[in-house]
Amino acid sequence: MNAFIQKYFRDTIQYPSSALLAGEILPLGTYYSYVSSTFLNGLLNYVIPFSVILLDRYSSMDDLIEADDLPAYMEPAGSLNWVKPTEAMPKSKVVELYTQPGRTFHSNLDTFRDDILILGRVGNHYWFFWFDMDVSDCCVGRFITEDDESEVLRSLRDALDHPSTPIPLHFLQGWVRF
Prior knowledge:
Layout: H1 2-8, E1 11-14, H2 18-21, E2 30-35, H3 37-44, E3 48-55, E4 64-65, E5 73-74, E6 82-83, E7 89-90, H4 91-98, E8 116-122, E9 125-131, E10 138-143, H5 149-159, E11 164-166
Parallel strand pairs: 1-2
Antiparallel strand pairs: 2-10, 3-8, 3-11, 4-7, 5-6, 8-9, 9-10
């Protein structure tokens, strides 16, 4: 991941202070690490995402996610009949079920119980979000580059240290949060 960070960000600030955040929210070319997921939630909902990636950092796709850790989903899809899972299911099944169109609304990114990376844009500014599963050391950065979206995404994928799974963009709907 360091290769991606070094390519697109000139500054990395760990544990940004409240005084720093009171100025320009996120200066261009700066990458904030160790910020809360709540801070990222507020920014993410004003960016146009073009890639969502689920990492296998805390668990593999075969590991079970307990029913109590999963939100309700619509059954059948789009019906407004919300059901809560009653048994654990592998992370791969959770991805398959919850990313079907019409299963959820107001997307909850921690449904998959692992890190989520999102690339997005606003105008010519790129945004990078890293939602970390323990929610206290998430990261966010904003940058400008001559690279097109496909090159930025390729740079990110090449820099990944963990297996990953793309999440369809249609999963992001309503107020997105982690």
